[in-house]
Design a protein that fits this description.
homodimer; 356 residues; alpha/beta; 434 Repressor (Amino-terminal Domain); Rossmann fold; 3 domains; 12 helices; 12 strands; DNA-binding
Chain lengths: 356, 356
Amino acid sequence: MEPARGKHEGARDPNRKSRRVTVTDLARAAGVSRSTVSLVLRDSPLVKRETRRRVEEAIDHLGYVYNRNAANLRRRTSDMVAMIINDLTNPFFAELAVGLEEALEAAGFVSLMANTGEDPERQRRVMETMREHGAAGFILCPATGTEARLVAAMSDWNVPVIQVMRWLPGARLGAVVPDYALGMRMAAEHLVTLGHRRIAFLGGIEGNVVTTERIRGYRAALDAAGIAPDPSLIVPAAVNPGGGIEALRASLALQRPPTAALCFSDVVAFGVLDASAAAGLKVRRDFSVIGFDDIAGARHTLPPLTTVAVYPQELGRRAAAALLRCIADPNDPPEEEILAPSLIVRGTCGPVPIEA
Amino acid sequence: MEPARGKHEGARDPNRKSRRVTVTDLARAAGVSRSTVSLVLRDSPLVKRETRRRVEEAIDHLGYVYNRNAANLRRRTSDMVAMIINDLTNPFFAELAVGLEEALEAAGFVSLMANTGEDPERQRRVMETMREHGAAGFILCPATGTEARLVAAMSDWNVPVIQVMRWLPGARLGAVVPDYALGMRMAAEHLVTLGHRRIAFLGGIEGNVVTTERIRGYRAALDAAGIAPDPSLIVPAAVNPGGGIEALRASLALQRPPTAALCFSDVVAFGVLDASAAAGLKVRRDFSVIGFDDIAGARHTLPPLTTVAVYPQELGRRAAAALLRCIADPNDPPEEEILAPSLIVRGTCGPVPIEA
DNA sequence: AATCCATATTAGATCGATCTAATATCCAGA
DNA sequence: TCTGGATATTAGATCGATCTAATATGGATT
């Protein structure tokens, strides 16, 4: 009797260092040439039925694993896409990544992912690595502080790049981004409709493109409503709850404090909500707050946060689609896709309180 | 006059389809053989100073890009690691991914990332793809519903696999996981110390290993405190706020409702907090709640959520380190690393309320 | 001048696939 | 019988790197 063998016999390493099964092995086993095996692997109609069967049998029998790298090398193609995300710990960007990966996978691409943690040097490093891996294209969510030089360099790389969520000014690269200005404008108009005229803008990093855009939308709404802009109502701060707390305190300390706040983002709004309560203001009745992003936590604050949804997962899918188009046709001009956000009215806004 | 040209002229494609610059080109330009160029590329001390300089000059001059795939093919190595995550939209797993990627990048590996969205079929597909790409190892956070067959198959793959956060029972694969039972036990003991004796366990999917473990810890604590277990107090439910709402309602409808709840996770706890308020219970005074995971939102609930921290980013780093060890020494036995969590006491627990 | 050793370089095979151009086979039609 | 066309298969070069084993070069030593 033969010695016992598990159901899933690892019969593939007779020698110590099991050599990989290759097309050559398949060819030998099936009694055909390597070329024919290759045709079978790529589902060519040129192969006779019976021959195909024999090869497929060999594949099963020998436990063959296709080597995509070797194939890509010979074909001078690539089925890998680089995905450079600035901060995955932010659920907003995590959603983006999910949309990206989903669309890329569906198209038969595999994602080389890196999280830069907003570190431009690390970003440079990983991009270089992925370039050396022959990524067919790049999805880039640039780290804050990315130098314009990078963009210039990338144009020379001769590989398509799509920016998402953020973009480098002056870049002749494609981009898929939300209409931040419009979103903030819609939010501001909502407050104006409720009677607010002293509206603060809290949080965001000065100089950052995204911040600039959001402030632009805020200003446009005030302007359209005939409200004179007051620079002291714009309070930049770190993009986290702590920043929100600080910014709210600063704005409440003004001679004429605001009756409502547009927050740079939901996480800033979280801090603003906490700080409002701490300052004895009942949100909605005494003070109105609007966030931005509509992250998962937004509907679970107390009261639930009114905010602007930008659908990061959908943006990811669109960005992936745009990149795939560029990969398919390299002469395709870099396009810019700007998605409209929507205002999600929940419970943090009320009419302007009656002056004491 | 010449037609205008951008400052950063892509001078590398004189012909339409610019051929890649290869070691052969470098060799020609530097007047040496391909072998010598290869030695320079790998920083070999065998090369004379002057020769190295000439090759490096050619590299700069021709804009050479190293081809890692070709090198990996020849060397029969791989610098890619597969990272299979079940649900990146969950901040908990996003943090895990960040820790993983960070450690892998630091070690010179690049991450092939896929998000399975808890779909075993998609998981199977991406794992197969990454295998064909020659991933040096796998980090697997198995989708719920993963069949045991997968594990069996992977043992035959002859490539190291480390499971994180979750694991497939019976798998002879490495794993890096939090001590869920201990975490839940600590949480339960906290409630017991506060005088609670009717403690519910809310949320979690029955049959899931993680749920089983957490319930085990819960039971152990009750047992140690001499409290008779009451199966009706264990209410499985979807792992999201909606599940929490449902589960709390169900438990409050019991003849003898609980005075405190251990939630399967923070997101479940969010729903439980909302539902408690809706039921007229003031959390802490009337009803105590503990979450699990310590996600970012946990400190911004009202009151801030007492929970169990498991440090997903650190787990990611450890898992990466474990995998790298297996890659370095394939004979290394699959190890199991179990990390102790810690209880984060915030504001959702109080002494057992005086009976009316 | 011959030998030896250390240093520096290289020709050619190789990794695992694909592609081109050629060849083999068979049957229909002149 | 020969030509032509469709069908099926293949030898050998190739992608871009590395590796092995051999060779070239230049002192130092006898």
